[in-house]
Give the backbone structure.
Amino acid sequence: MEDYVRRILNSSVYEAAVETPLDRLGPLSERIGRDVLLKREDLQPVFSFKLRGAYNRIARLTGEERRRGVICASAGNHAQGVAYSARRMGTRAVIVMPRTTPSIKVEAVRRLGGEVVIHGDAFDDSRLHALDMCARENLVFVHPYDDADVIAGQGTIGVEILRQHPGPLAAVYVPIGGGGLAAGVAAYVKFLRPDVRVVGVEPEDAASMKAAIAAGRPVALDEVGIFADGVAVRQAGDETFRLCRDLLDEVVTVTTDEICAAIKDIFDHTRAIAESAGAVSLAGLRRYAPKLDVPGAAVAILSGANMNFDRLRHVAERAEIGERSEALLGVTIPERPGSYRAFIQLLGARSITEFNYRIAPGASARIFVGVGLKGGDREKQEIVSLLRAEGLNVVDMSDNEIAKLHVRYMVGGRVEGVANELLYRFEFPERPGALLRFLEGLRSDWNISLFHYRNHGSDYGRVLAGIQVPPAERPAFDQFLKELGYAFWDETRNPAYAMFLAGD
């Protein structure tokens, strides 16, 4: 540990990296009951802590090694750190990236002066190709985590945390991919403040360090989840395993939904958009810090902000489930007029965040419904008990991955024999009672045959509804729509409806 502390204190990171702030997250601190501090490594020149370790390694090259140049394999932040550092040091940088690397990251490396080589469909393919090129072209390989100088560079974050917050400190939560950041931070923090807990945090579907500690050696995972791609490492490093095993107080795991909730928290407090891996540590803090039995602040390291824009839709969809502010339920109700109104009335003033239904033969109707929560799991259980007390069959889908990823979008389809069906698209004002007002205005002989609604965070909820209205009742139905006061569009002749929803 003393050797690493010397390396950390003698590192060269500040020739390229900056000291990042330690920001207090006010509302989250109030919820958890202790100060929550966020170490803002998203503010580095390459938007990630990886610059620290990469520069510290490259700065220690000999003159002969600099003339040869460096190479690494990476699909993201390490690649940018190496390219940036090599340009600062005036040496060649070859970056091998898999074909699946998003174009935004490839272009970022090129802008930083890296020579991009696209090879393989996965990181392991790129790594093997990089090692082969390293031998053939006599380059210096810069490992993303299992290197003493890289670990020491990352450890400078621990120096800054203890200097910026000299007061009571309960725990530091650190994301783990290969383990370089966790090893470096733990080496310094445990040397100066052994009373402070240092907790490694991994996604539950990419927990390579947790598996290594359980096995007593680094082991290769059969599969790794790629949502938090920056920490999706199949096998921990040898040196990082040794340090993390000896220095970390524990390694915990978090779910994808919890990571999404942490991204939302970071945005709410800072207006910064963290990448999935960058929010892993805050997800761990949100889940485990309330259980700490010692006073003091809790720190989470926001390790990066290189977020793929197209991933934001998934984050927004799952964040409310991750923060336990939404319940997703599958409910069976009687297939008869008035059932939907009675169901909504049972929920009272609670916000309906999703409602999916398509008529089907039989005496029962199955709906997929989302309900906003203010009391977390306790309130969810109250809702489930309330509905079951009314004789309704309820299945909690909140943690059902298939339901959240696929089934919610597949409720419906073509149904034969649906007579006199009209299809209308509505914009409901996004406020409690808007749906109930619509249902209460429908006559009992106008049957809802299709309903799709999902809250997407705007002022107006977009609703698609199929309603069976006999031809003789069309004038009365038109009058109902006018008096309702909601914006609406007749989509009965829409070709998408004809192809996928309307009965023959």
About this structure: Residues 2-48+148-316 form a domain with the Rossmann fold fold (CATH 3.40.50.1100). The mean pLDDT is 90. The chain has three domains: 2-48+148-316, 52-141, 324-500. Residues 148-164 form the longest helix (17 residues).
